[in-house]
Amino acid sequence: MSLSISQDGDALFPLIAMDRKSAFWATVINTIPAIIVGVDAYLIETRLRFG
Length: 51
Description:
Elements: H1 2-6, H2 12-18, H3 20-47
Helix pairs in contact: 2-3
């Protein structure tokens, strides 16, 4: 689930070549929500055992 949120495809490679600062911030903006969703999904799965 987190991987699909943070996945940017191959768009990051040209951005790194053109503007490293923008590539860094794009990575940060993608990573933070992915971590939040991943941790939330983990906590929900471990604390609320469905089934």
